[in-house]
Design brief:
By secondary structure, this protein is mostly beta strands. It has one domain: 6 Propeller (Neuraminidase). The chain is 10% helix and 41% strand. It contains five helices and 25 strands. Strands 15, 16, 17, 18, 19, 20, 21 and 22 form an eight-stranded mixed β-sheet that branches. A hairpin with a 5-residue loop joins strand 11 and strand 12. The chain is globular, with a radius of gyration of 20 Å. The protein starts with 9 loop residues before the first helix and ends with a strand.
């Protein structure tokens, strides 16, 4: 496989750099200004929540998946004016936001996102919809865009991106009707973890674990292992523990059964698993992340919210953020986006989604999707929030 890095022509790179210098954030300045001007919409947050002392909007309405790196920079994906997903970086206060993936000719032409930092800060791994379009792209373009978006990963491969966005390299070379989700680097070792769809009909996902290195031929993956500890149809990888002994993932027996989606911890050395949320309960649990010291886990859950879980396959289940001890004990709710009367409540179907801890363990950055009456099922508008923990 060819892992050599690709870059845009020198003139294009110099023009892009000049624009960034002149504007400070050339690729997103216009729409950020427009968002700021309309601070009264439901996507805007500033102030305390019911439990959390501060909830602040960083990106409104167009936000997506997030990763807060050890370098104290937040990588995220969001849509541009053409509803095209790209990968961005910003400071923890939302300043300095700029698009990285549009600096590279190959990635700029693709929907890409779900970024995760390498602990060194020298690389970002992400997903990109790099496969030739199937007939559904013409017959049902909205559905095609949704399933190939960074949140679902069909017909996606893993790519590596330099921190200035100019250099990119394809890490996996999957076939059509396969895909990837939620890649994550280990903290102290050279490992990369991700979910991979082996087949679409029937739908079957596994987890992959590989060694990552940058050699003479560029970035490459080796010694790829398949992890399928429970024999389930769907796995979504979430993170390594700070000491890299464990991984967290969510899983279901049947694809699309979000009514019974559970959080599981797995010890890499032995393969032993521990289920941290009750699979017997009709709940949607996902996006679990260890705190930097490994003592706590924040995740999203539908627990405690009055709703119709039969709407799960349509993406209409309301969720909030919860926190628990690393062993699954002392579960308690953090946010109340779906509780009327709570300071953070919004009159929409609110879906707490991807999240990442700050390096100091005092906050999380989170993607909150908000569905309003009239939004199409394939729309995922939402805000990226910085939430200070109690």
């Amino acid at each position: 496989m060819n892992y050599r890095l690709s870059s845009p022509p020198l003139i294009a790179r110099r023009v892009a750099l000049a624009l960034l210098v002149l504007s400070g954030s050339a690729c997103c300045w216009c729409w950020v200004q427009a968002q700021t001007a309309d601070a009264s919409n439901i996507f805007h947050f500033t102030g305390p929540g019911k439990i959390c002392p501060q909830i602040v909007s960083l990106v409104e309405q167009r936000g997506g998946r997030v990763d807060w790196g050890a370098n104290n920079l937040i990588a995220y994906d969001c849509t541009d004016d053409s509803n095209h997903f790209q990968t961005w970086v910003m400071n923890p206060d939302g300043s300095g936001a700029h698009c990285l993936s549009n600096q590279n000719q190959q990635l700029a032409a693709l929907d890409n996102g779900n970024p995760a930092w390498h602990p060194s800060g020298n690389y970002i791994v992400l997903q990109a919809s790099d496969m030739p379009a199937v007939p559904m792209a013409t017959t049902n373009p909205a559905r095609f865009k949704r399933v190939t978006s960074p949140g679902m990963g069909f017909d996606n491969d893993l790519w590596l991106l330099s921190p200035n966005g100019t250099l990119a390299s394809q890490l996996t070379h999957l076939a059509k009707r396969q895909g990837v989700l939620h890649p994550h680097f280990a903290h102290r070792s050279n490992l990369l973890l991700w979910s991979e769809m082996e087949t679409a009909m029937p739908q079957k996902w596994v987890m992959r674990l590989a060694k990552f290195a940058v050699g003479d031929n560029g970035p490459e993956l080796s010694d790829i292992q398949t992890l399928d500890p429970l024999g389930n149809a769907f796995y979504e990888t979430h993170c390594f523990s700070p000491d890299d002994r464990y991984i967290l993932f969510s899983t279901t027996k049947e694809p699309g059964d979000f009514q019974h989606m559970t959080i599981v911890r797995m010890e890499l050395a032995t393969g032993k698993t521990v289920t941290l949320t009750d699979p017997a309960l009709a709940q949607w649990n996902e996006h679990a992340q260890y705190s930097p010291d490994g003592s706590r886990i924040v995740w999203m859950s539908s627990a405690g919210i009055d709703q119709d879980l039969t709407q799960a396959t349509k993406g209409l289940v309301k969720t909030d953020y919860w926190i628990m001890n690393a062993d699954g004990s002392n579960k308690r709710r953090l946010t109340y986006f779906n509780e009327p009367g709570a300071p953070e409540y919004r009159p929409s179907k609110n879906i707490a989604s991807d999240l990442s801890w700050s390096p100091d363990g005092k906050s999380i950055v989170a993607d909150l999707q908000m569905r309003r009456p009239g939004d199409k099922v394939d729309d995922f508008p939402g805000s990226i929030l910085r939430i200070t923990l109690p």
